[in-house]
Amino acid sequence: MNADESKHKQTEEWETKMADQFTISVILPAGPERLYRAWLSSEEHAAFTGSAAKITPRKGGRFTAWDGYIMGKTLELEPFHRIVQAWRTTDFPEDAEDSRLEIVIDRLDCGSKLTLNHSNLPAGRGAEFKQGWEDYYFTLMKTYFSESHEPA
């Protein structure tokens, strides 16, 4: 293989391994402070998902959710507005970097808009994770926050 062929092959490999990303939002009947605190609370995160969660609610704090399927570290916190986390699941390829999850919470008259910007996902997996957020978070959160739950 000559140098041009080698360079072309390397470019093809890099292009096929490019990370997936997406943005998804949901309107929830709870204020920003309530959603922010619930996301970072082990007890309440477990309550709205229905699965065990362990969260150290500070910058640099580690977390697990969905009985250990999800894990990571909190990178940035802007109280009641934004959370950034290094995020991965047990089925990420071993050599895959952590993905980046940014949660942005904006106040609305009817509650809050929660937007997830999820980037650096393993190539070809974005649609799967986007559907997972819909099914295993947003649907459950709509139900949980529509009912009169007090913070755990």
Question: How would you sum up this structure, described in words?
Answer:
Residues 6-16 have low confidence and may be disordered. This protein has a seven-stranded antiparallel beta sheet. The N and C termini lie far apart (62 Å). Helix content is 34%, strand content 35%. It has a single domain, classed as START domain (Alpha-D-Glucose-1,6-Bisphosphate, Chain A, domain 4, 2-Layer Sandwich), CATH 3.30.530.20. It is built from four helices and seven strands. It is of the alpha+beta class and 152 residues long.
Name a few traits of the molecule.
single chain; seven-stranded antiparallel beta sheet; Alpha-D-Glucose-1,6-Bisphosphate, Chain A, domain 4; 152 residues; alpha+beta
Blueprint of the fold:
Elements: H1 3-16, E1 20-28, H2 32-39, H3 42-49, E2 54-55, E3 62-65, E4 70-78, E5 82-89, E6 99-108, E7 111-121, H4 126-146
Antiparallel strand pairs: 1-7, 2-3, 3-4, 4-5, 5-6, 6-7
What is the topology, as strand order, of the major beta sheet?
1-7-6-5-4-3-2
Question: Total strand count, please?
Answer: 7
Rg (C-alpha, Å): 18 Å
Largest sheet entry = 7 strands, antiparallel
Strand content: 25-35%
Provide the CATH top-level class: Alpha Beta
Number of self-contained structural domains: 1
Would you identify the CATH H-level superfamily? START domain
The H/E string reads HEHHEEEEEEH
Q: Which CATH-level-2 architecture?
A: 2-Layer Sandwich
**Class inferred from helices and paired strands:** alpha+beta
CATH topology: Alpha-D-Glucose-1,6-Bisphosphate, Chain A, domain 4
Helix content percent band: 25-40%
